[in-house]
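Figure S4 source data
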Amino acid sequence: MVQRIAQIKNATQVPLTLHGGSGTDDEDLRKAIAAGINIIHINTELRVAWRHGLEEGLSKQTNEVVPYKILPFAVESVKEVVRSRLKLFA
């Protein structure tokens, strides 16, 4: 895979995007970046983190109905994924 990415990058000389990067092993992402991938889509990973955070908020605040008291759990969960990916992609 890595060799093919490098070949495509060299042939096209344009930014390359990895669609469906969510769930891809960190080492594979590092290799893809080294081979020439410039953009990695992780939307599903962010959505899953949001969902898990929301579920956590609902389970910890079982009687709460005010969104701004439940949603911070989802926001923090997404932030954790973003921090992790920014470190990986840097």
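Figure S5 source data
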Amino acid sequence: MAAMIAARPWRTVYRLPPYAHELNPVEPVWSHLKRSLANLTEHTITELIALVKTRLTRMQNRPGLLDGFLDSAGTDVSPA
């Protein structure tokens, strides 16, 4: 790859991180959800699914929390 880049001086190449979780506003959502599920002892997958849906709905109904997730990623969602 380095040889191909060097052979084309007109091309500008920027190296990006392989994954930047701090730039993805979904990562704090999953992190928050996983923390809320810690040390639970659900007995079936159906119970776990119901609990996850309930927790996600609770997050959905807390706009301040969601705004915090977007802010932590530096995402600007204000109207232009």
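The helical segments are 2-6, 26-36, 45-60, 63-72. Residues 31 and 65 are 13 Å apart (CA to CA).
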